[in-house]
Each structure stands twice: as structure tokens, then as C-alpha cells.
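User: Reviewer 2 asked us to show a designed sequence for the structure in our supplementary figure. I'm pasting the C-alpha cells here. Could you produce the per-position amino acids so we can include them in the response letter?
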């Protein structure tokens, strides 16, 4: 197993503590940019891989609004380079990890299915939609065993503090204002990272080439209610909530229908959102030495 990461601001080698000890020579870390054809070609020349799982992405919507070229570089060019190298080096399977944000915004009812049209609202989601289309085109054009997975919002341990749930936990722990966009009534569907990882493994070994699989956690909640729940669990007052100017192009609601994936794969979400949130809050309480240096390095919290 080879882990490739260019280690941007969100990369953190501390996340890998214990991995080498657990897996020994079966694991290696390779610092590289997936958008570098020379680096990816050298890696795939050295190794014979069964599969490439493309987790790599610039993923924070706010940053994509400010610097879209970074997202095009990693999410679009990087995916294209990986697809090309994987094809030339005989990699059997290619799993493209994507997002429900490529579908755009839902009204008050309904859910995204694999047949929902693409309607991205931000440079981030547009770059992911483009990458998905490149991956599916490689299946149709070259016959690569490509599978695209699209998930709802992840949460759990080791999540970078710019994301909603860890950001709110950390700010509440520090008794700082909790910034909530607009009226806070945007809706997201949450999936625990362990459920998402289990889904990806199922797609890798059981998925049909050329298929799309939506993965959701059946954890649909209004954003401000998530924030209030965090405050309640930490014993903090709701007066810490600070409503701020809404994000540009902010999608109102996401909800994932994962019934197709549950029928086709040996998978279903198992983690209840409120229980998973309890565990996540406790993890950030217990691991302040992990996240405190990240706040300084990111320079915006």
C-alpha cells in the first residue's frame, strides 16, 4: 500500500502515527504531487498496483472561491494524470472519490440519486464534476475499470479544523464565537468517516466498472442545529453562535439516496449521527495536541 500526498496546508504526517508499526513493509509514504506526470510515472514504474484510489483533492469550498486554480490543478489535472498513468501501467481498477456537491442544491424534498444531473455551484464542486467526467470517459474510451463514488459530508476524528464540525467544536472549547453562514438553515447529510471508508472498500472489490455509487449516512440535519447540538454536548451557551455573511453560491440542501449502493454492494451506514458526534467531540477534547498546531499553520482560525 503506497500513500501519496504532496502535504499541503491540510496534510499532516501525524495522522499516520502507528501505521508503519501496524503494517510494516506493506506500507510506504511517497511525498509527491499527483498532477506531476513524471512523479506518478516513476511511482507506477517502480510498483505494480492492483488499484488506484484517488482520495486526493483540494476540498474546502471557501478556499476554492478565493483560489480556484489550485482546485483545477489537483482535482482536474491530478485526476487526469493518475488516470493516464494507471492505464499505461496496467493498473486494474481506478476508484474516483467524489462528492454530493457535484449535484448542486436540492429543494426542501427529494434526494440525490446516481441519475441526478450535475449542477455544481462552486469552483470546488465544478472541479470535482470535471474529474468525475474524465474518469467515466476513461471507462468509455479506454475500457479502464473506473468506479466513481460520491459521498455526503464526512465527519469524525482527524478532520482538518476548517470543516464545520471540528471548527465548531474547537471554537466552542475555546469559548470563541461560532461563525454560522447566513441564517444557518442549510441542510447537510452526514456520514461517519468509518462508514465512508467501508463503502469505498466495498466499491473497490465489489463495484461494477463504469458505475456511480452514492454513499450517505442518513444523517440529514440543519447546520445551525448541528452547531447547537455541539454546544449542548459541551455545556456551552447558544449565545456563542455568530451569524455571518453567507458564502457565495451556498447550496441550500444536500441529501443522498444510497439505496443503489446498499443493493449492489455489501455495505450500509452503521453509525448513528448523534452517537458519532459524541465520539467525535470527545476525540477533539482528547487530542488538542493534534489540532492546536494546525490552527497556527493554517493561519485563518
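Assistant: Here is a per-position design you can include in the supplement:
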Amino acid at each position: 500500500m503506497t500513500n501519496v500526498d504532496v502535504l499541503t496546508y491540510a496534510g499532516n504526517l501525524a495522522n499516520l502515527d502507528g501505521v508503519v508499526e501496524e503494517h510494516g513493509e506493506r506500507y510506504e509514504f511517497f511525498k509527491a504531487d499527483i498532477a506531476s506526470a513524471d512523479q506518478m510515472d516513476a511511482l507506477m514504474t517502480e510498483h505494480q498496483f492492483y488499484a488506484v484510489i484517488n482520495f486526493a483533492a483540494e476540498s474546502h469550498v471557501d478556499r476554492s472561491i478565493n483560489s480556484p486554480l489550485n482546485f483545477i490543478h489537483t482535482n482536474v489535472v491530478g485526476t487526469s494524470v493518475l488516470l493516464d498513468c494507471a492505464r499505461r501501467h496496467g493498473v486494474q481498477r481506478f476508484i474516483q472519490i467524489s462528492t454530493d456537491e457535484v449535484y448542486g442544491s436540492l429543494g426542501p424534498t427529494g434526494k440525490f440519486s446516481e441519475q441526478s444531473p450535475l449542477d455544481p455551484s462552486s469552483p470546488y464542486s465544478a472541479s470535482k464534476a470535471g474529474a468525475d467526467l474524465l474518469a467515466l470517459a476513461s471507462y468509455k474510451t479506454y475500457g479502464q475499470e473506473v468506479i466513481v463514488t460520491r459521498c455526503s459530508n464526512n465527519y469524525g476524528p482527524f478532520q482538518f479544523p476548517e470543516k464545520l464540525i471540528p471548527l465548531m467544536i474547537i471554537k466552542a472549547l475555546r469559548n470563541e464565537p461560532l461563525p454560522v453562514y447566513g441564517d444557518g438553515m442549510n441542510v447537510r447529510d452526514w456520514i461517519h468517516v468509518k462508514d465512508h471508508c467501508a463503502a469505498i472498500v466495498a466499491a473497490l472489490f465489489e463495484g461494477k466498472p463504469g458505475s456511480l455509487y452514492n454513499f450517505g449516512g442518513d444523517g440529514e440535519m440543519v447546520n445551525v442545529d448541528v452547531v447547537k447540538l455541539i454546544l449542548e454536548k459541551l455545556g456551552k451557551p447558544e449565545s456563542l453562535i455568530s451569524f455571518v455573511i453567507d458564502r457565495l453560491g451556498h447550496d441550500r440542501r444536500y441529501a443522498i439516496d444510497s439505496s443503489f449502493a446498499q443493493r449492489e454492494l455489501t455495505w450500509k451506514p452503521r453509525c448513528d449521527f448523534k452517537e458519532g458526534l459524541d465520539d467525535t467531540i470527545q476525540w477533539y477534547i482528547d487530542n488538542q495536541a493534534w489540532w492546536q498546531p494546525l490552527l497556527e499553520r493554517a493561519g485563518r482560525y
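For the response letter, you might also mention the following. The longest helix spans residues 68-88. The radius of gyration is 19 Å.
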